[in-house]
Amino acid sequence: MTGFLTLFYKELLRFWKVAFQTIAAPVLTAMLYLLIFAQVLEDHVLVYGTVRYTAFLVPGLVMMSVLQNAFANSSSSLIQSKITGNIIFMLLPPISYIQFFGAYVLASMARALVVGLGVLAATAWFVELSIAAPLWAIAFALLGSAILGSLGLIAGIWADKFDQLAAFQNFVIMPLTFLSGVFYSIHSLPDFWQDLSGYNPIFYMIDGFRYGFFGVSDVPPATSFAVVAGCFAILAAATLWLLRGGYKLRY
Q1: SS in 3 state form for 152-183?
Q2: From CA 147, how far away is CA 163, in angstroms rounded?
Q3: Cβ atoms within 10 Å of 66's Cβ, excluding its own
Q4: Residues 225 and 219 sit within 8 Å (Cβ to Cβ)
Q5: Residue 81: which of 50, 107, 63 has the closest Cα?
Q6: Nearest to 21 by CA among 79, 76, 61, 67
Q7: In angstroms, how far is the first alpha carbon of the chain from the final one?
């Protein structure tokens, strides 16, 4: 396990050494979203019949920050290693593809959860939140960050330059996160858009995470968990298959 622990430690140091950029900046961005949307809509929107809009918004912003930073960590790390050429120092040692996968994904989860806790702590100044089902919130945070960490690895393997990675993030990750119910309940949408939201896996991550705070959600948490767990199984298998074959890494 020495190779795994070394690679994991290297990935942790990578984002921690520039914490102002990798942790503080996402927290500030989430706070700006909260200040703008809460200021405009707080007195006009009531969600689930009893939940104030600011309180509704906070778990969505926390989970959005978790997901985006999990993806950014693994994808940016891998593409940097490919472009600079130091990927060879991780491929030559006797580190299995499973250990490679585990180190990158766990480091992505670590960064994502630190950012999420930072957003949650910062928003505590604006709204009081009670956690109705903490185990559900933890489960969705862990699974969601693991999924986006795996997807970041896939994007990093596929991309040959930063432009391609930026396109993947701007045209796939960003729309999926913004159209996943972070800023609204899907029951406020027309029927067509509600049905379309059901095909967005990130919606289930955010809705399930929000259930952990309020005990109510747009979709039953067990259904959301089944969808999220299934997505993780598929993406993990796909990532391991790519790593095992050495696609765009060894060949």
Answers
A1: HHHHHHHCCCHHHHHHHHHHHHHHHHHCCCCC
A2: 22
A3: 30
A4: no
A5: 107
A6: 76
A7: 26
Which two structure tokens, joined as six digits, stand for 85? 């050429």
Note the pTM of the prediction, 2 decimals.
0.92
* Angle at the Cα of 180 from the Cα atoms of 224 and 12, rounded to 5 degrees: 80
User: Token pair of 195, please?
Assistant: 């049905």
Question: Long-range CB contacts (< 8 A, 24+ apart) of 166-173?
Answer: 168/75, 169/71, 169/72, 169/75, 173/67, 173/68, 173/71, 173/148
Q: Which of 107, 121, 108, 117 is nearest to 138 (CA)?
A: 117
**CA distance linking residue 206 with residue 181, whole number of Å:** 7
pLDDT at position 49 over 70: no
> With 0-12 CB in 10 A as exposed, 13-18 as middle and 19+ as buried, what is 91?
middle
Query: What does the pLDDT look like over 64-90, one tens digit per residue?
Result: 999 999 999 999 999 999 998 888 888
Q: Which amino acid is at 42?
A: E
CA neighbor of 66 nearest in space, from 130, 109, 31: 109
